[in-house]
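Rotation project, supervised by the postdoc (A.L.). Task for the rotation student: set up a whole-complex structure prediction and record inputs and outputs verbatim in this book. Inputs entered:
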Amino acid sequence: MNVSTADQNFDSYKSKFIEQLWQMNPGWASHQGYTKYDDLLDIKTPEDRKKQIAQYEIWQNELKGFPLEKLSVLNRIDHKLIQNYINASLWHIHRYKAYEWNPSMYNVGEAFFKVLKRNYSSPKEKIRIITNKLSQVEKYYEVAKLSIKNPTREHTLLAIEQNKNSLNDFCIQFKDTLEKSELSSEEKNKITAQLEKAKNAVNHFTTFLEKEIVPAIDKGATRSFRIGKELYEEKFGFDIVSQHKASTVYEIALKRKEETHQKMKELSEKIWSKYFPNEPFNSDLKNIRKLIDKIALRHAHRDSFLTAIKKQIPELLKFITEHNLIGMDADKPLVVRETPSYMGGVAGASISSPGPYEKNADTYYNVTLLNHYSPEDAESYLREYNHYLLQVLNIHEAIPGHYVQLVYSNKAPSLIKSILDNGAMVEGWAVYTERMMLEEGYGNNEPELWLMYYKWSLRVTLNTILDYQVHVLNFQKEDAMKLLMEEGFQEKAEAEGKWRRATLSSVQLASYFTGFTEIYRLREDHKIKHGEKFNLRQWHEKFLSYGSAPVPYIREAMEEK
Ligand code: ZN
Ligand code: ZN
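Outputs recorded:
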């Protein structure tokens, strides 16, 4: 078998794998824009889990028929991604068991919104899909009830909060669609009755959590939200795919925190007298915070926030072109827009990119407008995303961060790499570009910009420290708040939010720092290795050409002859 036949056979294996993956996970498929199973809810009985395990074993055996050395570099990465996915999935079923202890996994709200927002061949088809889905809601929550065993208090309360009213907005909008449809009033009534039944099923579930689960938690010893050292290391291995153990990354982060404080002290000393001419400088963290607060007063107006962002995009593009940092020829420009209301009104900025099955759709840079903010909240938000930090944010989200990475990963099309994408690489890249842009002279090395950058990067470092301390080292909230506010210069509300996030998730908070650290390290290694021949632009383009794969896989691919 020569190389190309091996690759061809592997491509067929991948297509079959993906088709079976979607059959097994209709919710995930729908989320990715694969519409074939849109009319199904994702229901997993213990019987279904047995079938899943059997399927994983089949995939696993088939995978063994493709020796890595016979495959192309890109297929080798896909091979490893599938292998890691199978291992992780088995681990989730046998070891992690979130389906037992995390009731917030069960919520139908988003699945219904997804299909309501999607265009189908006809309005009738949309109604058919939704009614079919509605008919499964009762069973969905029955199975959920039976699956839950000894859940954590935090995830139970979250499930109650999220499920309450989870179908309400959907119902209002769907009733409107129904009214406008050409169905007979008899048919309409039938569907409306189904809708009510589904809403009842959701209510039964939240009542069950409130009346049976919460009192049981109050009475007895309950499972902790902290996953502990063993599970943390294992999850870190599957989710991040790092060359390091979690404990090592934690040590690196602690060291980085100290180094960052040191840099901030040096910068503060340089510019202190410009802002506080009559006060002597002393380098404790309180003074650095005072200086940061003063610098943050330079910010966009609440009405021109979106305009300020729009204006920066072409400037960033110009900078990466003029400084020969990375080539950018997007077929489609980035569309900066106000965050749509169905995205939940989360403050801030984010990129939404078309899924692998909706390639022709636009990529959006969503910016939340401050219209509904009180003057105090708007001011606080604008100070956070002040003149300096807003630039770093745009680098991260747009150019050359997430948006550019996306353009490159679309050029190396691999469904496997889009579906099983590595969050540490994706976030790591965006964080890496912040640093790289400043190093290459973006902002003319203005000390204020660097100081703000360090504050921002401290957030990423502390996310890693916090996550490990909470899940492995049993840190209490008080210590966490102290860390984030005193050593990270965060506001109380932000620190509270971060604590909550750490109690509800694990490992994800560590992905940004780990990815960044590994990408930066890889670049520095290659600088040394290639000496004068090293070219930053070529390196960036080569690095991104492998798609959203784990950094250690990319390292291996870049280093082989
Ligand atoms: Zn102001
Ligand atoms: Zn990001």
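Student's summary: The longest strand covers residues 335-338.
Supervisor addendum: The two ends are 22 Å apart (CA to CA).
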